[in-house]
TrEMBL record:
Cytoplasm listed as a keyword: no
Protein name: Osmotically inducible lipoprotein B
UniProt-listed InterPro entries: Gly_zipper_2TM_dom
All residue ranges annotated as the Glycine zipper 2TM domain in the record: 32-69
Length: 70
């Protein structure tokens, strides 16, 4: 069970890193929203280890990133 959590955390971090490369043509607010959602999803996966915490973390991170980007 612990190795599944580690693999999912690593996969989320890799997904965030890959998605950041697609932020070149985005507005600053859009980029901050995407980064916040990615980091929030990775944090939710690391803390909770299930889909609900990953989705909740992504949603919270997206909102925070959107507001910080203003």
């Amino acid at each position: 069970m612990k190795s599944i959590r580690q693999i999912s955390t690593l996969a989320a971090i890799v997904a965030v890193a890959v998605s950041l490369s697609a932020c070149e043509g985005m507005s600053r607010q859009g980029r901050d929203t995407a980064i916040g959602a990615g980091l929030g999803g990775a944090a939710g996966a690391a803390v909770g280890g299930n889909a609900l915490s990953t989705i909740g973390g992504a949603a919270a991170g997206g909102v925070i990133g959107h507001e910080v980007g203003k």
